[in-house]
Amino acid sequence: MTSDLTGRVALVTGAARGIGQAIADRFAASGAAVYYTDLVLDDARAAAARAPTGRALKLDVTNPADIAAAVQQVVAESARLDILVNNAGVNTMAHRVTIDEFPRAEWDRILAVDLTGLYEMSRAVAAVMRRQKGGRIINIASIAGLVPLRLQCAFVAAKAGVVNLTKATALELGPHGVLTNAIAPGSTLTDGTRQLFYGDDGLFKESVKRMLDHVPLGRPGTVDEIAVAALFLADPENSYMNGHVLTVDGGWTAGYTRDF
Fold it and tell me: 200 with 97, same domain?
């Protein structure tokens, strides 16, 4: 897919690797000036160095001071901020347990990044976009926000919150020219899912075949396939989609209630 983002300024959280990096790379290849942000500045710099229009910022979405400083720097340098991709997120590997055994500290950690961090980023950037009378907010949700999954209550709750927060934000900011949408990836091949499922020593590799039996395409998605969806939502010609959750899951959820 091709798109012309020339003159647009984008900020992608969690852009040092995985889905975030693929989205940032795709935006940069389409002409946008892209701020690659991540917890570790050196990691963000390494990722941004791949793109001629890439710039790096340290950004912890659980730290309001980091958020304010990053948004201020973008606006000071570029005079605008057109696209925010709320990609930064975490899940748990050590605590795949039922709710009665799930640690409160792990619940707080996941919600702080996956939901509260997204809220804080959106709140800061929305003020900029309202002033400039336009912009795009793209939230990375998950199919776990659309259907119930076992043994990850915090992640499921956080991503379900992202789904409805996306719709509420669309209602509030749409009249100001700001479009808010989300992507709900299915199982996607990243460093994290390799550790869990797809690596030779993956913690849950024995359950992979059973899971993929419910994906009509029979494989996990790639980060580039998620990036294409983000480019579609950012495309200037896609100007009437607002409050939508774009599912990119190989058809998994199409048969979820029947098969799983």
Answer: no
- Asked whether residue 34 falls in the same domain as residue 128, the answer is yes
Domain that holds residue 167: 9-186+223-247
In a shared domain, residues 23 and 136: yes
Q: How far is CA 237 from the centre of its chain?
A: 21
Query: What's the predicted TM-score (pTM) here?
Result: 0.94
Q: Are residues 134 and 17 in the same domain?
A: yes
pLDDT by residue, tens only, the chain of 260 residues: 889 999 999 999 999 999 999 999 999 999 999 999 999 999 999 999 999 999 999 999 999 999 999 999 999 999 999 999 999 999 987 788 999 999 999 999 999 999 999 999 999 999 999 999 999 999 999 999 999 889 999 999 999 999 999 999 999 999 999 999 999 999 998 876 666 665 566 566 667 777 788 899 999 999 999 999 999 999 999 999 999 999 999 999 998 655 54
Does residue 254 belong to any structural domain of this protein? Answer: no
What's the structural domain count of the chain? 2
Q: 39 and 166 share a domain?
A: yes
> Which residues on neighbouring strands pair with residue 245, listed in sequence order?
182
